[in-house]
Amino acid sequence: MKPLTMEWIEKAEEDFLTARRELRARRSPNFDAVCFHAQQCVEKYLKARLQEASIPFAKTHDLTVLLEAVLPVEPLWKPLHKALSDLSQRAVDVRYPGLTADRQMARTALKTCSEFRLLARSALEMSN
Question: The pTM is what?
Answer without folding.
Answer: 0.96
